Amino acid sequence: MSQTVDRALSILPLLAQGPADLGQVAERLGVHKSTALRLLRTLHEHGLVHRQQDQRYRLGARLFALAQEAVENLDVREIAHPYLAALNEQIGHTIHLAVYEEGEVLYIDKVESRYPVRMYSRIGKPVAITVAAVAKLLLADLPEPERRAVAAKLDYPPYTPRSTPNAAAFLKELATVREQGWATDLGGHEESINCVGAPIRGADGRVVAAMSVSAPNVVVTAEELLTLLPLVRRTADDISREYSGTTPTKEASA
Amino acid sequence: MSQTVDRALSILPLLAQGPADLGQVAERLGVHKSTALRLLRTLHEHGLVHRQQDQRYRLGARLFALAQEAVENLDVREIAHPYLAALNEQIGHTIHLAVYEEGEVLYIDKVESRYPVRMYSRIGKPVAITVAAVAKLLLADLPEPERRAVAAKLDYPPYTPRSTPNAAAFLKELATVREQGWATDLGGHEESINCVGAPIRGADGRVVAAMSVSAPNVVVTAEELLTLLPLVRRTADDISREYSGTTPTKEASA
DNA sequence: GTCCAGCGTTGCAGCAACTGCAACGGTCAT
DNA sequence: ATGACCGTTGCAGTTGCTGCAACGCTGGAC
Question: What is the average pLDDT across B151-176?
Answer without folding.
Answer: 92
